[in-house]
Amino acid sequence: MRITPMMRKLIRRKLRRDAPEPGQGELNIVPFLDIVVNLMLFLMATTSAVLSISQVEAQLPGYGPRHGRHALALAVVVADEAILVRGRDVDPIRIARRADGYDFDALTRAAESVKLRFPDEHEVTVSADPGVPYEDVIRAMDALRRSPSGALFPDVLVAAGVR
Question: 66, 79, 87, 135: which has the fewest Cβ within 10 Å?
């Protein structure tokens, strides 16, 4: 079959209409913007929910002439193998870790016995070994703050995990 000049002209015209020249095509960004807006909404909702749940009020211990050392200086160390409670004028207390985890009830009882001897003290410094899970440190802080009989050491200070 032979292509005549008229057919060639029609083919060229048809090809020019179907394929846009480079740089003249349209880019539809509506689906992209829809996805971005949805992602931003989910990110903001998740961030506000997480921030309201995961707040733990803690303070770093202060040392020096301005802060003054307390008479008790109670310190609790959550170690891999046990929880250690010590302070000035307090016999060291070691609460061994059980097979199912730390005994936080025993920690509360130890804090109650220390509180009976020092009723005016409100501070305790908590530190942990690097391998201790974060949840166990928070549980130790909770066990030191309150007991069923009332407040124990509500001012919990956080220190580096150094013994």
Answer: 66
CA dist., res. 158 & res. 141, Å (int): 9
Share of the chain above pLDDT 70, in %: 76
Strands 123-128 and 155-158: parallel
Question: For the chain, what is the radius of gyration of the CA atoms?
Answer: 34
- CA 158 to CA 87: how far, in whole Å? 15
Verify that 49 and 79 share a domain, yes or no: no
Residue 148 lies in a domain: yes
Q: Do 80 and 154 sit in the same domain of this protein?
A: yes
pTM, two decimals, is: 0.57
